[in-house]
């Protein structure tokens, strides 16, 4: 499975109503650290397959979802489980740190 692009319109359906845990990455095209973690998130999406979903929300195109989550800086990552936030982190991290954070949260 690859990452899923989520919009303000699809946020509830893709994230809050998901049957599996969802990692949400709030990012923007102009954000250097966001681009740094992008490939790691793609790899993790492929490795986890159907066990989790990794969603990407472009904050420039979808400001309402970011505002609703209180995102002030990017990249901002949240893990949702059963429609609720169970963990969050800000900033770019290496793939191993992202994987460890996901494992500890789901």
TrEMBL record:
Keywords, A to Z, come to: Disulfide bond, Electron transport, Redox-active center, Transport
Q: Does the keyword Transport apply?
A: yes
- Per the UniProt entry, the disulfide pairs are 31-34
Q: Name one GO cellular component term.
A: cytosol
* Pfam family for this entry, one: Thioredoxin
| Site description Deprotonates C-terminal active site Cys, residues in chain | 25
Q: Which GO terms describe its molecular function?
A: protein-disulfide reductase activity
Pinpoint the site Contributes to redox potential value: 32-33
What GO biological process terms are annotated to this protein in UniProt? cell redox homeostasis
Bilayer-crossing regions: none
Recorded hits in PANTHER family, A to Z, give:
GEO12009P1
Q: Which family does it belong to?
A: Belongs to the thioredoxin family.
This chain belongs to the protein called Thioredoxin
Please tell me the species this chain comes from: Sedimentitalea arenosa
